[in-house]
Amino acid sequence: MVENKQLNIKAILDTDLEKLLKETKQYNAFVDGELQCAYCGTTITIDNLSIIIPIIKEGHTTLNFCCDNAVCLAKFRKDYE
Q: Residues 75, 19, 29, 63: is their CA dihedral positive or negative?
């Protein structure tokens, strides 16, 4: 018997991404190619950005990122499942 598993997928538009990055003061780092995948260190670009991971510490939000590499996505899934 096959088990059906429902996933809740959240998406963000490019324009919302810009706003989010500016709110977390990470926009310039993104544009300058300074943001990296939390799992492999690959530079995050608009083309390889797969997952945004919000990190909230002491009331401040920063973002970590996961690229579209299958190994990184599997590590993210293991960490957050």
A: negative
Give the pTM: 0.81
DSSP of 23-72: HTT-HHHHHTT--BBTTT-PBP-TTTEEEEEEEEETTEEEEEEEES-HHH
Answer whether residue 31 shows pLDDT above 60.
yes
pLDDT band at 15 (very low <50, low <70, confident <90, very high): confident
Strands 49-57 and 60-67, by their bridges, are antiparallel
Integer Rg of the chain from CA: 14
